[in-house]
Please model this.
Amino acid sequence: MPLEAVAPAAQRWGKACDLNRSSTIVERHLQETFAFRMLTSASVTLAPVSP
Model:
């Protein structure tokens, strides 16, 4: 899934979680998943550069 498609969904989730603080666990999970996907996509992008 392209990062461009994930970002808007993450922003919508963030706004929804701001309105509903009882979902902080869901928000934290989403942030960790989002960060992991960013790191993974960065690794995949950098991998072909290394010899």
Notes: The mean pLDDT is 69. The radius of gyration is 14 Å. The chain has one domain: 3-46.
